[in-house]
Amino acid sequence: MVKILDGKKASEKVLDSLKKKIKANKLKLNLAIISVGKNKVSEIYLKQKRLACEKTGIGFRPYCFSKRISQRKLETEIKRITKSQINSGIVIQLPLPFNSLAIGQLFDLIPAKKDTDCLGTTNFNSFCRGNKKVMPPVVSAIKKLFKNYKIKIKNKNIVVVGTGRLVGLPVSLWLANEKAKVITVNKFTKSITDFTKKADIIISGVGKANLINGSMVKKGVVLVDVGASMEKGKVLGDIEIKSVFKKASFLAPVPGGVGPLSVACLLENLLRFSRDSD
Known about the structure:
By secondary structure, the protein is α/β, with parallel strands linked by helices. The protein has ten helices and eleven strands. The longest helix has 19 residues, at 258-276.
């Protein structure tokens, strides 16, 4: 029977440790979240971040802007937010109503020591070079889950579904550095089933409900769902849980898997970056 990778339980341990460190060192930290427009899935993650901040004693400072805001105006606002000494870390909540090039430019407005999502060029390049102190939260979360459940990745056939900057790209780079046999697939791949059926581990971060089902995976596969979408008021992951349940050996589901642990790892970065900059 499949074993569930419990990211919620793991996140509580991380948050408890952070709370103790923050209290012991009498730190005053604030996380600024910049969001544009309304997105139901984003609102769920914003709530998770707010609750995690409350549990650890970190201030939560949301900056919400209309979806009609221009890129130039948003750039001005981000610069203002980054200059505030009150804001220890800054996150731009995705998705944004701009093209990918523009979004990259927005990330680079955040100073490296405040870029807790590691999406700016400086921190992302440092991560790519193997700096383990600078790690995107989703990578840290998956790494912790694999360690907790003793899941080996070296020499394993791993398929990463999606090539986005938030999940697919950093995860595939990390796996390659860990000597896994990594293949990435996306919407331009003709038949992802040809690859997923051979995979020992599948990590999906597309955000398309039930993209992967039981007919697409082999027996004993490890499944890690990092995608989230909303249908009829319900959050669904990329992996159709019911159809894969009898085939998978491990499953990190949505909700309750990587998501809450990623939020905890984001706050780990906030603390680490703040202390390193002292």
